[in-house]
Amino acid sequence: MMNWSDSLSRRLAERRGTSLWRSRQIHQCSNGRFLYASDGQQYLNFSSNDYLGLSQHPEIIAAWQQGAEQYGVGSGGSGHVTGYTSAHHTLEQQLAEWLGYSRALLFISGYSANQGVITALMEKEDRIIADRLSHASLMEAAIHSPAQLRRFLHNNPDSLKQYLEKSCTGKTLVVTEGVFSMDGDCAPLGEIARQAQSANCWLMVDDAHGIGIYGDEGRGSCWSQNVKPEILIVTFGKAFGLSGAAVLCDATSAEYFLQYSRHLIYSTSMPPAQAVALSAAMRQIREGDELRQRLQNNIRYFRREAQNLSFVLTDSETAIQPVIIGSNERCITLSERLKQQNLWVKAILPPTVAPDSARLRITLTANHTQRDIDVLLEALRGSDS
Ligand SMILES: Cc1ncc(COP(=O)(O)O)c(C=O)c1O
User: GO molecular-function annotation terms (predicted)?
Assistant: First the structure.
């Protein structure tokens, strides 16, 4: 019989020394703009999803503290047992009202929300048709569900249409994202929604990177493209500056998830203090036009000034500005060179992205200054040798 330790060691040995080896570094803290390593070294941070810099906002921190005073630090159980407080209920109602849905249900993370929704919805004869660059949490849920999975060409409604024209005995769920996490491009949601609707299918949009950034009061990609998917996923680890997620849906679907989503039933709910802080973050986001403007100015500035770099920029006009390098080794070397100049830009490698498309995933935030961006561009120019 195979020994567990031998088996794990063999698999680690296969990966160690390759560019696929992943490791974590200890940081003291980071705030959209700076990251402080464990030795106190300060880096300009171009890898954070804290797009509006809310993770350090004093009113949100105060709300969390006040929530902890009122409710303690943990929820004590799943929402079906002890973990559904007035703080959770209020946040759900605020989210539903803000985004124009009957109901919102909180999950502890975006990963959990995507798993909890897809695995609860899909049955054996059903079909998922997902954009082929959808996030791992969507793809993994689809793969593990009993439904058939088909992947349409990235952001290509014609490819979606071709799949929709093929018959299916069960129900079909079309899945895409508002803003793609590794490429930063936006989905043509209007056309995708029209295709889904005309084929009588449901649309699920994960707007992890669009919520808080696009649309009136930061209502996200769907709102800004005048689309209302049957299932909308919003996450709180990016523009909200915290963590957690919610699914927005109609009353019947919400009741269904409460009965069938194992992630809701068998997992401790988020701390009530976090729900209080999320309500405060939502207020900041709704009133955050100035922050959104600062972010958009930074994106425009970066793209204009980056035009004469010898690197390949993508068409992204969002806070995610990947610089495609191709080779894993070269991408790691570039990331290391930037680090030596106190710039934090993580290399993103396959299998997170397609083979031969390793990239520096640069993210911009409202907290960056134009001088910060100049420093990054200068370093990128100097690194390309
Ligand atoms: C598009 C997308 N969906 C879901 C997630 C997972 O969200 P969370 O970090 O809250 O688990 C991510 C995380 O980066 C993401 O980019």
Answer: 8-amino-7-oxononanoate synthase activity; pyridoxal phosphate binding
